[in-house]
Amino acid sequence: MFVRYGGISSRKADPMEIFENSIALTDGAWKIIQIKDAGNSMKGKRQAVQMLSTTDKKSIPISEFDVELILNA
């Protein structure tokens, strides 16, 4: 499975810590194979750029990550 995962800059939590903790709760059913930095939502002029309010224009989105996982069946 491939997942692009990130967070929002208004939260203090580390998104990858949350993701890795969630995978750990599967008791080994899923194994993370690889994690790659995918940049942030400003890259590629995605919808997130259009959704910024006028007060948030100076806000820089946090990094997103591409995660490759395998199901341990």
Brief summary of the model shown:
By secondary structure, the chain is of the alpha+beta class. It has two helices and three strands; from the N terminus they run E-H-E-H-E.
Q: What tags apply to this protein structure?
A:
single chain, 73 residues, 3-stranded antiparallel sheet, 3 strands
Overview of the molecule:
With 73 residues, the protein is of the alpha+beta class. It has one domain. 21% of the residues lie in helices and 26% in strands. The chain has two helices and three strands. It has helices at 15-24, 47-51; strands at 2-5, 30-37, 65-71. A three-stranded antiparallel sheet has the order 1-3-2, with helices on one face. It is elongated.
Which helices and strands appear, and what pairs or packs with what?
Elements (H helix, E strand, L loop, with lengths): L1 E4 L9 H10 L5 E8 L9 H5 L13 E7 L2
State Rg: 14 Å
**What fraction of residues sit in β-strands?**
25-35%
Q: What is the share of helical residues?
A: 10-25%
Low-confidence stretches: none
Overall body shape: elongated
